[in-house]
Design brief:
360 residues, alpha/beta, nine-stranded mixed β-sheet, 15 strands, disordered N terminus, disordered C terminus
Length: 360
């Protein structure tokens, strides 16, 4: 019996060493950037430095490949490595605007067909710069750019609220659906550092637009994907100062289509985040006044967003899909729908709820 136990210990020990050795012999790809320049693909790998030292000089390095086809570019990048390319650890895929506009179908097809890539990575769009420049924006604070982007997206619900936590599988569900225009997070460089830029919108398998941070934040509210959204009004009796509230979702914003009308129904909780106007919050009327004012601002934001997407002709709200799922009929005139807004805001300072309704 002791011999059997000893044999199992030896086998597990050998297997562990074998796996560790295999990992050391592989180039672990954490991030990939794809640009399309002068009718040629430019692919860059961000490789994790898995050399056994206490403090490696570089925690990641990059290799580049080029080719007339996406297959050739990936192969060229892999050929530049002395180790076997390991793609199962991929966290982020960064696409330039040109690549997403001109070659998106070829790119997603390649990523789907590669058996070594797990589809749980985050695809993002590089705004205004090459995808390579985003991936190369390392410094002491950001030794591995792909990990920083992954963290920014994951933590964004507590900050600006302008990113989408969408993995490749989720994106492909939208990409292959004719009744919704897909969307992804956009990244830009600010002072040489990768920063969230808003939400990129697709139409007919091509990148069409990148929403501003303001429009991106409204989209998140309408999509029940916002953990906080700030609204502010200036002081009436002061030249400076604001009252600011924070809206947070109960996943209770609904879009209803009936008789050529789109009705947005929002039930949002709110808390007073900051007040430099000297309001008397012991007076219950203050909350009613605030509710009325802030609801008007929210209504205007919804209208601004609606005007933009109808002019842009991008159905990122998935109205065609929602309508088909309910009626089993196609919605061909979604851009011509009349907008109606209903809002209920609960300011949790004293628990009162105020309901308002506006028509457009």
């Amino acid at each position: 019996m002791k011999k059997i136990i000893l044999l199992f210990i030896i086998l597990f020990t050998i297997t562990g060493c074998y796996d560790y050795q295999e990992l050391n012999d592989r180039a672990i790809v954490s991030g990939i950037s794809i640009d399309y320049i002068n009718e040629e693909y430019v692919v860059n790998y961000e490789i994790l430095n898995n050399v056994k030292t206490e403090e490696p000089e570089y925690k990641a390095y990059m290799v580049e490949g080029n080719g007339e086809t996406i297959v050739e570019a990936f192969q060229d990048a892999s050929d530049a490595l002395s180790k076997e390319t390991y793609l199962s650890h991929l966290k982020v895929l960064i696409l330039s605007e040109d690549a997403a506009k001109e070659k998106m179908r070829d790119i997603v097809d390649y990523m789907l067909r590669d058996p070594y890539i797990r589809n749980i990575f985050s695809p993002v769009i590089a705004k205004g710069v090459t995808a390579k420049s985003i991936l190369a924006s390392t410094d002491k604070e950001t030794p591995v750019v792909s990990e920083k982007i992954e963290t920014m997206i994951a933590n964004n619900k507590y900050n600006e609220n302008i990113s989408l936590k969408i993995d490749f599988d989720h994106f492909m569900d939208q990409f292959e659906d004719d009744r919704i225009d897909p969307s992804l997070t956009a990244i830009e460089l600010v002072d040489g550092k990768a920063t969230l830029a808003g939400i990129a919108v697709f139409e007919d398998s091509k990148l069409k637009d990148i929403l501003s941070p303001e429009l991106s934040a409204i989209f998140k509210v309408l999509n029940n994907d916002s953990s906080n959204h700030h609204l502010k009004i200036p002081c009436e009796n002061k030249t400076e100062g604001y009252t600011i509230i924070n809206l947070y979702q109960n996943k209770n914003t609904n879009l209803e289509i009936k008789e050529e009308t789109l009705t947005i129904k929002s039930k949002l909780n709110a808390g007073v985040l900051k007040d430099s106007c000297g309001l008397n919050f012991r007076d219950g009327k203050i909350y009613e006044e605030l509710s009325t004012k802030f609801e008007k601002i929210l209504k205007d934001e919804y209208q601004t967003f609606w005007n933009y997407i109808t002019m842009d002709e991008t159905d990122i709200l998935g109205l065609r899909k929602k309508y088909y799922q309910k009626s089993r009929q196609e919605l061909t005139n979604w851009k011509d729908l009349k907008l109606e807004v209903e809002a209920k805001i609960n300011i949790n300072k004293n628990g009162k709820t105020f309901e308002v309704r506006h028509n457009e």
